Amino acid sequence: MMIPVEIPTVLSIAGSDPSGGAGIQADLKTFMATGVYGAAAIAGLTAQNTRAVDAAVAVDADFVKTQLHSVFSDIRIDAIKLGMLPGRAICKAVAPFLAGYPVVCDPVMVATSGGRLVDKDAVSALMDIILPEADYVTPNLYELEVLCGKPVNDMIEAGMAVLERFPNLSGIALKGGHRPDPGGTVTDTLLYRHSGEVRQAAETNPFIDTENTHGTGCTFSSAMAAYLAKKHDPADAFIQAVRLTHRLIVLSKDRKIGSGHGPLLHHITE
Q: What is residue 213's three-state secondary structure?
């Protein structure tokens, strides 16, 4: 008799990147690289490549809800990763499905280049509807400034302010890529709640000077969700996600896909 094996499974709810570097496509590649099964519900469609986002449309909110019903009615989910949710109606459709799961929210609002990816109403909906249901949030520097409502001078101070603003959050990942350390390193820090206090987990790696960073935020947040699905504790899930992302940056730094900011190459092992 066959004994069923419970395979760790992560559901990504995010937008699609037809160039394969970010969004749903990067999420599924990351799930494979971390040894979990990946499911995906598409909330937005984009026309983009390594140079620019040329167009974007939101998927009908009722159809997003139908996708989620189809997945949850058949497949056991161990963790959820959220990416771009382009609109209030979509946020309202997604929120009821989040209860009871570890949820890692990549608050896709501002690109690494600093350009806005969703409109102000979608940002407001993310903060009003989605973040109160999430467990971990993984903003880039520009998104951290949106969450704080002001420029960020001290990353730790800003992270603490976000945790105070959203008391439901179990943790916030503070990524150091936009502000390398003076010694040529990058330090990523997780602020997380434990036994009534906020603790820190940090990982420092050499700064890699490369244009091939398309999809790093998607990869990191997906990896953290994957390790949570594999029952790693939050601090270790964060550290393992940082290490995987750094390794992929190193492996991808001199291998070019496209003519702009190249993607991480999840299939490269050495």
A: coil
CATH of 9-137+211-252, one of 3.40.50.450, 1.20.1730.10, 3.30.460.10, 3.40.1190.20: 3.40.1190.20
Verdict on whether the full-model pTM lies above 0.85: yes
What are the catalytic residues? 175, 213, 215-218
Neighbours of 185 (CB within 10 A): 12
pLDDT tens series, the chain, 270 aa: 566 678 999 999 999 999 999 999 999 999 999 999 999 999 999 999 999 989 999 999 999 999 999 999 999 999 999 999 999 999 999 999 999 999 999 999 866 555 566 788 999 999 999 999 999 999 999 899 999 988 999 999 999 999 999 999 999 999 988 888 888 999 999 999 999 999 999 999 999 999 999 999 999 999 999 999 999 999 999 999 999 999 999 999 999 899 999 999 999 977
Question: How far apart are alpha carbons 143 and 216 in whole angstroms?
Answer: 14
CB count within 10 Å of CB 266 equals 22
